[in-house]
Specification:
heterodimer; A: Rossmann fold; 5 helices; B: alpha+beta; MutS, DNA mismatch repair protein, domain I; Dna Ligase, domain 1; 4 domains; 6-stranded antiparallel sheet; 19 strands; elongated
């Protein structure tokens, strides 16, 4: 039976606690910091040390206080996953974001899932498009869209889609970050036309 | 029992220290050697050996003069900190004679040997033993025993073997300053006995209470204490096992016992361990080490123990481990904290996590961001190791800034207005709206190769494809670059 509450944005964001989720697409980073802000508490960001792209804490500040962000730089893909698993299991941070560049295998994905459950922490895997693992609870695709109507000072209008969902349906929303209230606002579909 | 004090004076402590370390070739053949101290723009002799002194060199002499007198003089810069450390070493060594040892200036020791002389066969035998051992170690020394500290000092610095009555010594032996000494000599008071013959009131009136105080201290009318050096705490414990062990649980249990003892020691001194080293000695004499670097100073055994689990896991026990040693190789001050009803944030869990991650990927690879005072986007923040910093500062930016920054990527475009169409990362993008420019000038006081191209005009470009990019144009060296991406 169709239940409209199941498809409401509030029921899907933040996604299910104590699980690992995946996000891909050009705006994946916004999703990660918005989720960190929504959950509150510390965020551990694990990535490989060779990546030259810098996370800009000044840009993150409207979303999430950079004081709450810790950055761990691991040597390789395996260390990223191992560090993330350790952090998930310890349960001392609210969100563990792991930025990976290689596909996460089913075994690794399942291990992360179990670690998240035992530590009661949410994990988020930021990955390139088309590289998800089947163990993830949900997979999101986030992309910015051009918004001709609104002023440029506003935050970026984005299209967030659930493209894989273990317990629910796939759906898409147009959202925008509100820096004053520090939350994600859903933009109504009609307003886009 | 009468108090007996031994004074040791090492007149050539700095040069003896260097020579006995064998750093120079002169150690064996007795060639002139001097330590040099640089002051007031001249190199002066700070300390010198016997051979140099026989060539008419003296302390305070200018090095160039000394070289003229004695062309084969070897020299080396003086190191006062090493000298002080060496004196502390000597103080620790002399605890073999008595437990009560204090420093006397920068080149002497004072030992309160009351009640311990008989252990060495009497006082004379004890002093002979000291002289013999110090001479064998290559240290020139003057040693004397007396009833008071003042008298012992006088005998070592001014005494001769012939008499040990301090009354016959010059007044300078009373540890008075040079000015008072000269004044006393001018009055014809050359010896201590001359001073003793005078009425005390006249001395006090003429020279102040200091001379009389020193006289009383030397004669024993006024007591003077020797302040002993404190024991430096040692943060190491060990455990020897009757039977070798090899199971991980056993090793962890033994580590637990060691940790409990170590943490008690740390707690007594209000210190916390920053780096721990666990040495496991095997039956076949091989030793393995497990090192643990902590993200914050800690002395809570229950929390440190699980952090050892990963390191102990990798140890090869071989035929078994029969001795374990745990040492805090690096300690930091950790004051006892008061728990109050308002203490809410407990960063301990996070520090444990940083430690655990640090043991895998290196403690220096876990960073936190601190704000920095700069308009340059790359320099408006710092990444510092999280274990050695605390979160602070406020993050405020007047203009929107991108979430991600990358090294400037050139795009093909001309003119000072953002291009209508451009290619970036193999995508062809169309500009929907451009906001700007925001001019950022380089910080000329800090050289930075990336900013050689001069000022930059930054534009926020919303493309019709969705991507919002941070572009800049360099008017002084025309070119367009992509520097970051919003969202």
């Amino acid at each position: 039976m169709y239940n409209p509450r199941m498809t409401a944005f509030e029921s899907q964001f933040p996604p299910m606690a104590s699980r690992t989720h995946e996000v891909c697409g050009p705006s994946a980073m916004t999703f990660a910091v918005a989720l960190g802000a929504r959950l509150g508490g510390k965020v551990l960001w694990v990535r490989e040390a060779w990546r030259s792209e810098q996370i800009n804490p000044v840009g993150i500040a409207p979303y999430l206080d950079p004081q709450h962000l810790l950055l761990a730089q691991a040597q390789n893909h395996l260390d990223v996953l191992a560090s993330a698993e350790e952090a998930l299991r310890s349960g001392s941070v609210a969100l563990v974001v792991m930025e990976v560049t290689q596909p996460v295998g089913l075994t690794e994905g399942r291990r992360l899932q179990l670690a998240a459950q035992s530590g009661k922490t949410m994990g988020l895997c930021v990955l390139p498009e088309g590289m998800g693992s089947n163990a993830a609870q949900t997979r999101w695709h986030c992309a910015p869209i051009f918004d001709a109507a609104n002023a440029a000072e506003d935050s970026t209008l984005q299209r967030w889609k659930i493209i894989k969902n273990k317990s629910g349906t796939n759906k898409a929303w147009s959202v925008r970050w509100n820096a004053q209230t520090r939350r994600i606002n859903v933009v109504s579909e009609i307003a886009q036309r | 029992m009468r108090k007996r004090v031994v004074s040791m004076w090492f007149p050539r402590l700095p040069s003896d220290r260097v020579l006995r370390a064998g750093l120079l070739h002169t150690a064996n053949d007795n060639r002139p050697f001097a330590l040099i101290h640089h002051e007031k723009n001249t190199d002066r002799i700070y300390c010198l050996n016997d051979a140099a002194e026989t060539q008419c060199l003296h302390r305070g002499m200018v090095l160039s003069d000394a070289r003229a007198y004695c062309p084969d003089l070897q020299s080396q810069p003086a190191d006062r900190i090493a000298d002080a450390k060496f004196l502390h070493t000597l103080a620790r060594w002399s605890k073999r004679y008595c437990p009560w040892v204090g420093l006397d200036g920068t080149d002497g020791l004072m030992l309160n040997i009351t009640g311990s002389a008989h252990l060495f066969g009497g006082e004379a035998a004890m002093l002979d033993d000291m002289r013999h051992r110090l001479a064998r170690a290559g240290l020139s020394s003057h040693i004397a025993a007396a009833n008071t500290r003042g008298a012992a000092w006088a005998l070592t610095h001014y005494g001769h073997k012939a008499h040990d009555d301090i009354r016959a010594l010059p007044v300078a032996a009373l540890r008075i300053d040079a000015k008072t000494d000269t004044a006393l000599q001018r009055l014809g008071l050359r010896k201590i006995s001359d001073l003793l013959a005078l009425p005390r009131a006249t001395i006090v009136r003429r020279f102040g209470p200091d001379v009389v105080l020193r006289l009383d201290q030397a004669m024993g009318a006024q007591d003077e204490v020797i302040s002993p050096l404190g024991e430096t705490p040692h943060y190491g414990v060990r455990l020897t096992l009757p039977d070798p062990i090899g199971l991980i649980e056993d090793v962890m249990m033994a580590t637990d016992r060691l940790l409990a003892r170590l943490c008690d020691k740390l707690k007594d001194q209000e210190m916390g361990a920053r780096q721990l080293q666990l040495t496991l000695r095997r039956v076949d004499q091989g030793a393995q080490q497990v090192e643990l670097r902590l993200a914050a100073p800690m002395r809570d055994a229950a929390r440190i123990l699980p952090l050892f689990a990963r390191g102990v896991d990798t140890v090869d026990a071989g035929y078994g481990i029969d001795q374990m040693r745990l040492e805090a190789t690096q300690v930091e001050r950790l004051l006892n904290a008061q728990f109050t009803s308002t203490t809410t944030s407990n960063p301990d869990d996070l520090n444990d996590l940083i430690t655990r991650l640090g043991n895998r990927i290196g403690l220096d690879n876990i960073h936190r961001f601190l704000p920095a005072d700069s308009h340059i986007p790359e320099r408006s923040f710092q990444t510092v190791p999280a274990a050695y910093s605390t979160a602070s500062g406020s993050w405020a930016s007047l203009r929107p800034r991108p979430l991600r920054l990358f090294a400037p990527e050139p795009i093909a475009a001309g003119g000072s207005k953002p291009p209508q169409k451009f290619r970036w990362r193999r995508m062809s993008l169309t500009t929907g709206r451009a906001t700007g420019p925001e001019r950022i000038a380089p910080e000329w006081w800090l050289p930075d190769d990336n900013w050689r191209s001069g000022v930059r005009d930054y534009w926020t470009v919303d493309t019709r494809e969705g991507r919002r990019l941070w572009l800049f144009y360099t008017p002084q060296d025309p070119g367009w670059f992509v520097h970051g991406e919003f969202a």
